[in-house]
Amino acid sequence: MNPSERRDFIYFYLHEHRAVSISTLVKLISVSHMTVRRDIRILEEEGKVISIAGGIQLNDALRQELPWNEKALIHHRHKRAIGKYAASLVEDGQVVYLDAGTTTFEMAQVLAERFNLTIITNDFSITQHLMNKPQLNLFHTGGQVDKRNYSCVGNSAAMVLRTLNVDIAFISTSSWDLEHGISTPHEEKVLVKQALFEIARRKVLVSDSSKYGKYGMFRVCPLSCLNDIVCDGQLPMSVQQQLKELNMDLHIVNI
Description:
CATH architecture of the largest domain: 3-Layer(aba) Sandwich
CATH topology of the largest domain: Rossmann fold
Oligomer: single chain
Shape: globular
Number of domains: 2
CATH class of the largest domain: Alpha Beta
Helix content: 25-40%
Structural class: alpha/beta
Largest sheet: 7 strands, parallel
Order of helices and strands: HEHHEEEHHEHEHEEEHEEEHEEEEHE
Low-confidence stretches: none
């Protein structure tokens, strides 16, 4: 692996394991301790990781997301189960918004077999998957193209959404917690997500537990703005209890 590939591997590995020792990385990548430490220093300078005793862990202050095709591989079993459950919340005849994301893509695969639905999305992968489903009405927001995440973002996409009425919106995020609410490291995503809270009758966060406790620079909204959260059972019980005290429905999907 070249230096860039090594750093991508380390960052990807941390999304699966949260923390890793330097000695483990040396064995996994088959390079010297010095090389690993040099890669770690660069990742720290980029704000992606922080050092702990004998190793590193993800920085909870999220500054950058993984590309779509890499995110799709992480916690896939959890995302598939969450997506399947979330799809069951959709009623026939509804106008449904699917936010750009790999969990909402899992939802799209289930909804693709449904009838009498209108699907709105800013995600190109979802659009492509549903393109050959004639029984569904399909709308794409358009807007500024986010090439890393195969989606559209920014004011143009938000303006389109504000011309619509949505029955239920499924919202994705890379970072959320009780203190920071839903957040993102990318400013251009904020307008799209905030528009959904204006136009959707029911707002549902779909996210696996690995994203809880992280936060990005840009705040979208507090969790109290949501009607529902769909997450997996690895979300800490203390957090589950606190969420249940908010005016929302928490759906825990056991994997």
